[in-house]
């Protein structure tokens, strides 16, 4: 058994994918059971319709939608948790790095549309190029931000770089808005319509009256995100760079004495976190179809919430927190109106998500999984 678990294929592919499946299925099952239980409790209070039947009717689709957005939150949250694991401060400009990656990817697709290449190139090649460009630009921007705004303040009290991060966030928002006004004259960046991403795959499941509908871009989003999470797991736990990142996260002075270039490792950490944020921005653009210089605020805030929910500084916790938050958002948006008979709608979904965060922090301040030193990055 020990020989099997030490096998690289199991350690870096089978185990992380299995962990993702366990988190996704576990969180979905718990929230589904809780929702159905509430439906049974309040069933008699609804006279116009059968509450349980209505809940079960859309439950599979609600879970699918929640997992889709949850994976996006997880990918953004990894950028927050990696930087915190190394420097122990929150990089609030990460939401704008996510925004820049999304806008760059959409602008590349808009350029292909303008030149006529969008209709002739393979749609998956286009998305791959957009994600790659978003990762390069966002990763480079994250390194630049670290060198300019954080490195000179590394020895200062923690509040000082935090204020610098907030200032950098505002600066990036206005800088992107200025660049867009000078180049395109538009405030919004709109994803060109191409390919079959908006189409649905219909799957009939025995015992379920309504067939499941999987949007192609949602499948692509989840697939790419899982690949990035598996790749990050290998990078952090299976390479020398990953070992150096974990060493710097544990003890920077000792890591420096062991011959590790701490400044370079910190830059690499920002590069990886920024690249993940840029990829998440392009994937988010596929879902949202319209971006602006301020679009990173709410996804970034929710991703930070996901990182805290799972355990800030813990890569596995960021994954779990993102999935839980995405599912909470989907369940709240879908069922609030049903349970309150129209008194509350989807606009109140964030209240429940953040209420759960407050509850978790009261009962377990370190997050659901805590801060596992071996997985800090």
In short:
The protein has a single domain (11-375), classed as ABC transporter involved in vitamin B12 uptake, BtuC (Orthogonal Bundle).
How would you explain this protein's 3D organization?
It is a single chain. The chain is mostly helical and 377 residues long. It has a single domain, classed as Orthogonal Bundle (ABC transporter involved in vitamin B12 uptake, BtuC). The protein contains 13 helices and four strands. The chain has helices at residues 2-5, 8-41, 51-87, 94-115, 123-150, 159-183, 216-238, 240-250, 252-257, 262-288, 297-310, 315-339, 349-363; strands at 189-190, 200-203, 212-215, 290-291. The strands form two sheets. Strands 1-4 form a two-stranded antiparallel sheet. Strands 2-3 form a two-stranded antiparallel ribbon.
Q: What is the CATH C-level name?
A: Mainly Alpha
What would the average pLDDT be, to the nearest integer?
A: 85
* SSE string: HHHHHHEEEHHHHEHHH
Rg computed from alpha carbons, rounded to a whole number of angstroms:
21 Å
Ranges where pLDDT stays below 50 over 5 or more residues in a row are 373-377
Helix content estimate: over 70%
Q: Per CATH, what is the topology?
A: ABC transporter involved in vitamin B12 uptake, BtuC
CA(first)-CA(last) distance: 28 Å
Overall 3D shape:
globular
Structural class: mainly alpha
Contiguous helical run count: 13
Give the total of domains.
Answer: 1
Our estimate of the beta-strand percent is under 5%
| CATH architecture heading | Orthogonal Bundle
- Side by side, the strands of the main sheet go 1-4
* Tally of DSSP β-strands: 4
| Major sheet size, sense and barrel closure | 2 strands, antiparallel
